[in-house]
Structure formats: structure tokens, C-alpha cells
Amino acid sequence: MSSHDESYKLFFSHPQMVEDLLRGFIHEPWVTELDFTTLEAVKSSFVSSTLKRRDEDVMWRLRWKDRWLYLYLLIAFQSSPQYFMAIRVAVYVGLFYQDLIKAQKLTSADQLPPVLPIVIYNGETRWHAPTNTKDLIESVTGLEKYGLQIEYLLLDEGDYQDDYLATLHNLVAALFRLENSRTEQDIQRVLELLIDWLSAPEQDSLKQAFVNWLKWVLLPRRLPEIVIPEMKTLQEMNSMLAERVQQWYADAEQRGWLKGRLEGWQDGRREGIMIGDVHGKATLLLQLLEYRFGQVPEDFKQRVLALTSDQLLQSATSVLTAQSLEEVLSALTRH
Which residue has better confidence, 102 or 224? Predict the structure, then answer.
């Protein structure tokens, strides 16, 4: 099982996430009739002679008036839709009913409870597979009534616009917004909401689920170039991202200033020095280095002052991309 599947299973092991899923994303009258205080997890791994266990699937039940309603949550984290998903759902529901009949010793006097299958998908390609088995089976006149028919409810995370999700005071909506985020600022906005919404001590386990998912799944995918530090709280993650955003803006501003200075130098404009004045170019390079990396060591200054005009120009260009003074020093060595 992937870390993404495992983390979602952990999310939906919390009744508050299941309640928010139903209240926020199933807009049908019967949802208001559910008794969410009766939510309880159900064993959800069924095995046949030909089927493998699917530990990433989650099952709950709760009271709907005078009956139990079962919820089957199937986590579909693949790059593209699975065309025959409806058949897979039908097989799973059949196995569940078979297990229920055996476990509860049901007889002809009993009826099986309703099951609502929900497929949660977050692939890049929007879901286009049929959600009902009847659309997968050839229709033959006279045999229609004998065909297998079961339908699942699809929740395609990429179908939801951030403007809509932002209107919901809902943890699943927050999860979908994080999944659809593109920038550090997008993540920050949702983190600030989660910090407020998950402030109660009894929500510590759910908070930790978000922390673990952010640290091990989302942030490595969004920020592959950085090492994620050890963080135990949402507040720490929010602070880390705030620092990242501030540094990003500072770098952008700095790069713009440096680029302008270098273009002025290369185009022959006056930037406080005369073109052809080697000492003046060396002085400008040292200014750029101090602006970018702070105080420049004396021995490094002497090396810069000894460079030729062409070497100074090449070294100054490297200031734009270098991540440290040592990288510029390496460039000086090559020139």
C-alpha cells in the first residue's frame, strides 16, 4: 500500500472526516436524516479465492432512521481513471454481503442493509469511467432485467474549484484544497484554517494525521528540492512555509536587483563605474556579493581585485544562480 493510500485510510478512520464527507459532498435530503453520533468502523478486508486484500478501503456504518446504512470508501490513487471500477465495487459489495450473512447468520426473515459505495479519486486526469455497471455490460433486448446493476458515488478531487471548497467549514474540503494546491501560499491558507478548526484536545489524533500526511506525502511532492525538517505540529509547518514564502519573495526581489545591475554593466550603461575600469567592476562585483551573501572575507576580496575584466563579468553573472559564496569561489577558480 502506498503512503498516500495509508494516509487517507488514517484520515477516514476518524468519524469527523466521515461526517464532513457526507455533509459537505453528498447533497441529498436523506443525509440530514443520518444519526452521526452512531458512526462506527466496520471490518473492511474481505478475501476470496481470486481477490487480494484491499486494506486501503474503509467501511463505516451509522443509523438512518430505523436501519443501518453502510458506507464503503474506496481510495483510488492512480494516475488515471480505472474504467471497470464499477465491477470492482460490485464484487466488493457482494463479498461484504456474503461475509455479513455468514457472520450474523441471516435467514429468509432478514434483509440486507443498504451500502453506499464512494470512490475518492485524485489523479491528474479527470474521471471519465462509467459509475454504473449497466453501462459496462452489453444490453440485449429481453435480458436487461437480469443484468448486474450497482452504482458508486464518485468524488473526483480535481473537479472541485478552490472558490467553492473555501466556502465550506469542512475538513474534507480542506484536504481537497491541499491536494489541489500549487503554491506554498495555497497550503498556508488552508493550514491556518486547520489550526483553528482542530484546536480541541480530542482532535489531537486527527491533527497528527494531517501533520504526517503533509510531512511525508504532500510537502515532498510540492517542494521536492528541500529537506522537510522535523515538525510535530501544524503551527510549525505553517511557520516553516511562511519563512519559505518570505525567502522566495526576497530572492525574487534580489534577483531582479542583481539582474538590473548586471544588465546595466553588460549594456555599457553607467552603474556607478566607468566601462573598462577594472577596479570599478571589481568593486561592483563585491557589492553584489555582499548584497547577496553578506560580508565577504578579506582574502576573497583580494582574489576578486586580481581578476581581469572578462573574468569579472563571468563571475558577476554567476552571482545570479549561485546558492552560496563558495559556489562563486568555485566559478572564480574555473575562470
Answer: 102
186 located within any domain = no
Q: What integer pLDDT is reported at residue 251 of this predicted model?
A: 56
Residue type, 144: E
3-state per-residue secondary structure call for 99-118: HHHHHHCCCCCCCCCCEEEE
Question: Three cell numbers at 81?
Answer: 481513471
Q: What is the pTM of this model?
A: 0.70
Q: Residue 96, exposed/middle/buried by CB under 10 A (0-12, 13-18, 19+)?
A: buried
Q: Is the pLDDT of residue 237 over 90?
A: no
Q: How far apart are the first and last CA of the chain?
A: 51
Q: Residue 14 has what pLDDT?
A: 95
Query: What is the spatial distance between Cα 155 and Cα 71, in angstroms, rounded to a whole number?
Result: 14
CB 57 within 8 A of CB 92: yes
Q: Which domain holds residue 328?
A: 270-334
pLDDT given for residue 270 in this prediction: 44
More confident residue, 48 or 220: 220
Question: Do 45 and 166 belong together in one domain?
Answer: yes
Instruction: Out of 120, 155, 180, pick the residue that ends a domain.
Output: 180
Beta-strand relationship, 115-121 and 34-42? unpaired
pLDDT tens for each residue of 69-81: 999 998 877 667 8
Give the domain-ending residue among 180, 207, 227: 180
The domain total for the chain is 2
Residue 42: name the closest of 64, 59, 54 by CA: 59
DSSP letter at 63 equals E
Q: Is residue 42 part of a domain?
A: yes
3-state secondary structure of 60: strand
- Consecutive H or E run containing 59: strand 58-64
